[in-house]
Structures are given as structure tokens and as C-alpha cells.
Amino acid sequence: MNEEDLKKKVGLQLIAKTIVYAFAVFGVLFILILIGVLGIMSPVKMAVKVPDKAVLTVDFDTAYAEVRGDDFFAEFTDVPVYSFFDLIRAINTAAGDDRIKAMAATVSTSALGLAQIQEIVSAVEFFKSKGKEAHIYSNGMGSFGGGTKEYYLASYFDKIWLQPTSDIGMTGVHIEVPFFKNILKKIGVEPEFYARNEYKTAAESLVSSGFTPAYKEEMSKLGSGLFNQLAEGIAEAKDLELDEVKKIIDKAPIFSSEAVNKYHLADYLGYRQDMEEKLMKKYEAKLLDINDYMYTINDYEGEDLPQVAIVVLEGAIQNGDSSNNPMREAVIGSKTVQKQLEELSQRKNLRAVVLRINSPGGSYAASDEIFYILNKFKKEKKIPIVVSMSNYAASGGYFIALAGDYIVAEPATLTGSIGVLGGKMVLKNLWEKLNINWEELNYGRNAGILSSNHKFGQEEKKLFNTSLDKIYEDFSAKVSMTRKIKNVENLAGGRVWLGEDAAKIGLIDAVGGIETALKKAKELGGVIPGADFGLVYYPRQRSFQEKVEEFLENGGGLPAIKILENNGVSVENFKAIQRLQYDAALPPFKLEM
Fold first, then answer.
1. What's the rounded Cα separation, in Å, for the pair 243 and 235?
2. Three-state SS for 394?
3. Please, are residues 145 and 253 in contact by the beta-carbon 8 Å criterion?
4. Is the pTM of this model over 0.70?
5. What are phi and psi of 164, to 5 degrees?
């Protein structure tokens, strides 16, 4: 290359770098300006006026999370910002609101779990008890299968409307479990995990190629228990014999015309507009979306009133900060829980705390820390804690629930799983396949105990299992101490219990939802029945800037989810598999009802 060509090359490189740096600078400036402008222009919701006569519309296919929507996109899209608690509170409030004359709901394929649906059923029953009609419409329950929990919900409404060209899935309960042992072996990865005890099966998806007897026993107990709850609930709501309901389930999917005319599972063939117009005409009322109605209900955080806090803990448990990245399993961080309780401790009129838990478990160390933090808070503030379990509060989720003075769960809540597991993924054979050689230098006999380049040695295996024994003993002892259970081993060993069974054996105190827990919390906190009280909700609402920062850190989770789902990738399945990274969690499985 001559001197002139060299100069040209250097010149082009300088121009390229200048362009890159300019775009980088402009990019940063653009983001800063965007944050500033959006901060100023952050939408302010217009006041909602409830009509003098209204029919409340509710879409039970909407994914109401346990934690209020508080991310960047919630400011500008129709992504639900209200939580499941807000949904239940709105239905119960509407029951006593003379302006709300009836309810017009829809359901087709709901993202809600059965335990949450059972809470909704209680709210709908309360709504009806005030002499108000509740109708529900579906353009097809399930997708030629599933649909059982959707019909379970619909069966408690006064009238069920079906689109003429639809069907009711109602095919029962279906459980699928992934097993990765064979594929891991092919690529040279060998999982080495140990559990306490045989029913602690979260790692079976890694170490087995199919069900072990204990794992199959647990899943069978879970499936049959949920199936019976669904069938019994439908039988009760529709005044049918249980055997008759089970026979109908075996014949499903049931086409809409047969559902109305032959099996009397529904009342009308029509469309959503027909249902809404019928109720509007009957009550001379206007439609009111429940999300708009929720906006008219505030938390009343007045300092002069006795206050009850609702603290929502959703996700897998780990040390550090909580997160709610939609691309991953939500995380309950011990550090965040501590900060929330420190803030709550500054409230002078705080009388009680409702701890709403929806967690498959997680890190034992983090669960133990949260258990300690909660008990310390109770002792110092002399504040009762009532636990409300959602779809699941198992393993570490059950561990932190032990800090409650009173524990409430729905019949279908998954809880218990008192056990522990741990181990590592051994990559030795993978490195050999890739022709990569690792050498080790250890200064300390067990310095390389958690290395993924080799299996546990005999001494290392002994030490690791001794650690698991101590953790299991500690977990079991805390269950025995807090729940006053003598023979914990009969309930432990990793066994998973449904809420209705957990109540019988003493793992929880009562069957019910968050309203049941709130009522008990007020009672234990000395709040006079019927008196006004303040409601404090955590996680607190964040500033707009905090939301932008999280969005930038997570790389925009919501658009990524849309891309995955549009290409047929189930994000929920992806999240379930992510649980395998934790040392004390429910196993990954797909449950369809």
C-alpha cells in the first residue's frame, strides 16, 4: 500500500469513527431529551364519571398480575396497570354501589390460575348476593380443549351466553412435564443434583428422562385434586350430579348448540353485543368498563386513619432487588422486601400487614433472610401479619409465609414443598467434545467444590449433602415451631399440597382469598369492623424516570415478548424452565385446565 492509499484509509477510518461517535452522542442526547419530554407529557388520566345506572363490563381473559403494572409501557399503552387485588376489590365495591345494576363479563381463554378464579367466584357470589344480575359471554371456552377453569368460572354466573359457532372445551386437567436428561447427555452436560427428600422433584427434569414413582405420585395427586375441585364446583353451581359432570367432561369439547339445548350448560346463543344490549335495556343503563371503575377507587392512605398495608411478593426468591421483567420469571428480592418494611415502619397508624404471596420458591438463603426480616418487623412494631396465598406459595414461598400470624389460601393454591435441593451442571464431557481443556489450581482442599468442570469428589459430595441436611432440618424445625406441628416429616420431604388439604393438616389456617385475609388483618390489628381505614399498597408506584431506567436496563421486555409470542414461543413455558436455576422451587410443568 503506497503512502497516498494509506492516507486515504486513515482518513476514511477517521470519518467512520466520527460518524459512529456522532450517532452515539446524538443517541444519548435523544434518550435524555425523550425522558425529559415524556416526563413532562406523561399522561394524566381523565376523571371517570360513573353513570347513575351502569352495567359493569369485565374481561376475565385480561392478565391481571398480582403486582400492579408499573413499567415504562404502562404509561402509554393499554397494558393493565391494575392488579388482581384491584380487580377483586372493584367487584366487591360494585356489589354495594347502587349505581352498578348488573355485570356483563366475558371469558374465553383466561391467563388466571384456578386459585385466582376461585377468588373471583367468591366476589361474583357476593355481587349476586346484593340482588344484582351477573351475565357472562364466551366466543369459545378454551381452544378445542382446556376451557374447564373458564367454564368453572362461568357456571357461577346467572346466565351464560355462547357465540353460536363456538364450543366449550371443558376437557379436564392436562399436565405436561419436560425432561432434558437425554438432550443434555448428547451435548455433554451432566446434571448432578441432590434433594431432601424424594418428593422434592424440581431437578427431576434435568436428571431423569421420565417420571420417577414419587414424581408421578405427586403430579397425579395434584391433577386429580384440581380435577375434583373443578368438577365439584361445576356440579354445585349448575345443580348437577358429580358423575354427570364428569361424563360431560369426557364428551367435551361440547359444541355451543348442544351446550344450550342438550346439556343445559349455557342459556343463550348470541353475541357479546346481544348480552350487553339486553342488560342495558333492562336497567336503562350505560356500559362501564371495570378498569375505568377501578380508577374511581383509591387506597385512602390518610395518616389520621388506622392503616393496613398490602405487600405483594410475586416471583422466584433471591437475594438483592426485586424485579418484574416480563421476559423472565418475576423476582422477589430480599433487599427490596427489607426496604419496603423499613418504609412501612415509619407509618404511625399502621395496624396490620397483609402479605400476598405468589411464588414457586427460590434461594433458601434469601427465603430465610425474608423470614427473619418479617419476624423482626413484627416484633419491633408489634404489627400482625396475615398471609394470603395466590396460585402458589411453595417451597421458599411457603417458608416466608411462616412469618405470618395467620395464613389463608384458596382450595387450588399449591403450597408446602417443604424440602431443599441443590447441585451443579457438570460440563466436563461438553468441553471434551469441543476439544477444550481446563486446568485447575486449588488453594484449599474444597476450593473447587462448585466447579462445573468435574463432578463432586467423595469428600465434596459428603460436605454438600451435609449442607442440604442442615438446611432441611432448619426448614422443618421452623415449620414445626411456627405451625405447632409435631410430625413434620409426614408433611415434608418436598410434598406439594393443595390449599384445601393444607388447611386440614395445619399448614395453613383457613381457606379463602385476599378479602378474607384483609378482614382477619383488621381484626388482629384492632380495626373496628365497618370503620374507615387507610390502605397502603406495596410495591409503591415508581416515578416515570425510574420506569425509564428499568426499561433501558431490561432492553424493552414487552416488545420482545410480542416477538416471541408472534412466532409461537410460549413465554410462560420459558419462565417455568427458568425456575431450574433456583435451589428450592416447584418443578417446571405445564398445567392446562
1. 9
2. strand
3. yes
4. yes
5. -55, -30
